[in-house]
Structures are given as structure tokens and as C-alpha cells.
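Researcher: I'm preparing a figure for a lab meeting and need a structural model of a single chain. I don't have an experimental structure, so a prediction will have to do for now. The sequence is pasted below. Please return the structure as C-alpha cells so I can convert it later.
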Amino acid sequence: MIGDMTQINRELVEWIGRISFSRPVRNVTRDFSDAVLAAEILKLYYPRHVELHNYIPVNSISTKKENWRMLNRKVLVKLDMKLNEDEITQLASGSNNAIEKLLARLQVKVLKNSLTTHKLKFKENIEGEKIINSSPIANDYSQSSLESSNNLNNETCERENKLSKFMHLKQGILFSCIFCVLARVWHIFVYCIPHRFRRHDVLVDVTVDRTENVNDKSVQRTIYELNQELCKKEEIINSLEHKIVHLKNSIKFTDLPVSSLTAQILQNDVKIKQSTKSRSINSVRTKSRLHSFHETKVA
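Model: Understood. Here is the structure written out cell by cell.
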């Protein structure tokens, strides 16, 4: 019996873990005691019968009982899972494994309903296939399906041939573009190096003569593009320099009040020192006067 209960608990935990709740489930008896999570399970499998806004998460046992009574009256009675008052109190207080038992009953109910629905769908599919196969329209449909499959095979072959031709053309265009790019790069390299480092081979002269007229425009275009890029970078540098100057000026403006405050603090320190010195001198003088006055009285 204990082994059966542990197996049931494991199956329940796995089943509950596959459901996404509005709050995490850490303790089954405590979290399901207010009937909110049970209503969410029923909403998942029987959405027509459940309205989640009627069930509010609460902490007191009396309000938990009200939630369970509403769930019993509106949903569980319709599913042949009616609860009595003792079971409702046990569910609200989380005693005697009442919640685990109810969840197990609900799991069995859901599995039975899913099996019955699958059986009905399977029977409907078999009956439909029998009707289609027994009718004379089925033969025509099979012949038309064969013809359509043949047509599809022919269309796929034609598409494959067209794709192969397109790929060959694409490869030819790519090779020609690569050759043109290499010729441009070679011309730029030959144009940029000094005359003393150039090789005066016959093949180089022939290639340069052939590509000179074609590649002059490309060289000019690349130079123009490089000049544009340089202009953009110079503009960026100028804007950054203006920002740096602005920051320096702002730092200077902030330094001015700091320096004035330090000067005032120093002046105040000097004044305070002078006032303390004068006070000490005056106190010494008054003491000396009082001493001389007493001496004259004594004499």
C-alpha cells in the first residue's frame, strides 16, 4: 500500500510539473488548499465550466471553504466529482491527504475523457475511410491522385533542370566577376608602386595595355570613394575636437567657483586666526590690569 501511494505521488508530481500555474508550487497541500490552483487545472481541461476570476487566493480557512464550495457547486458536480462538507473542510485545512486524493481522482477523470475522445475520433476516421473506399468516386479519386503525382514528378524534374541551369549561369557570372576584380586589383597594385620597382616583363606590359582603358575609370572611382571616406572621417574628427574643446571650457568654468571658494575659505581661516589672537591678547591685558589693581589696593 505504501509503495502504491509513493507511485501515485510521483505520478501526481510529474503531472502537476507539466502544468504552468499562476504561482510556483512548492508544497501541494498548502498551495492547493485555497482551490485556486485546482480551478486552474480544471480550466485547462474543461475551459467551459470554469471562470478563474471567481477564485481568489486567500489565507483564512473560512474563505478557502467558500472557494471549494463554489468550485464544487459550479464544476465538480458537473464532472461527477461532488464533494461533501467533511471533504471540503479537509481540503481547506490540508489534512488526511485530501488534496492528493482529489488530484488523483481528477487525473483519472482527465485520462478517461481523453481516451474516450481519441476512440471516437478513431472510429469516425475508420468509418470515413470505409465510405470513401466503397464509393465509385474513390476509384476516380485514386486515378486522379496518380495522375497528379505523375504531374508533380514531371514538374519537379523540370524545376531541378531549371535550377541546375541557373546554378551553372550563376557560377559563370561569379567567375567572371572574380576575374574582373582580380584584374582591377592587379592594375591598382601596378599603378601604385614606383617605376624602379616595376618589372618590365612582356606579359605585364601586355596585361596593363589591355586593361588600362577599362580600369582607368575604376581606379578613378576607387580614388573618389576613398576621398569621400577621408572627408567623412575628417568631419567626424572635427566634431570630436569641438566636443573636446567644449568639455575643456566647461571644466574651466567649473574650476572657477571652486578656486573662488577655496580663496574664501583661506581668507576666513586667516580672519579666524587673527580674531583668536586678538582675543587672547585682550584677555592677557585684562588679567594684567586686574592684577595691578589688586596690588594697588593691598598697598
